[in-house]
Design brief:
Length: 81
Amino acid sequence: MYPLKTEKKEYNVARQEYFAITKRNKKLAKVDMLILGTGLLLKYVGRADIGEHFMWLGFILLVYVFGTNMMARNELKKHEP
């Protein structure tokens, strides 16, 4: 009976971590869309030299958000009861 309680505790901790990561990543995704939009706007108005840097930053941030979401989901699946 005790191992089941510890497994449930581990699952609940992993679930809380997953929700904390996804909440943070939602905020980062909003900032990322702002950065990508700024880069596209700068390219449109003729400042492609600066706009490309913003777009690369946006793509890197997008990959980071996607990667951390995938890793968090895999960790949660490891602890499923």
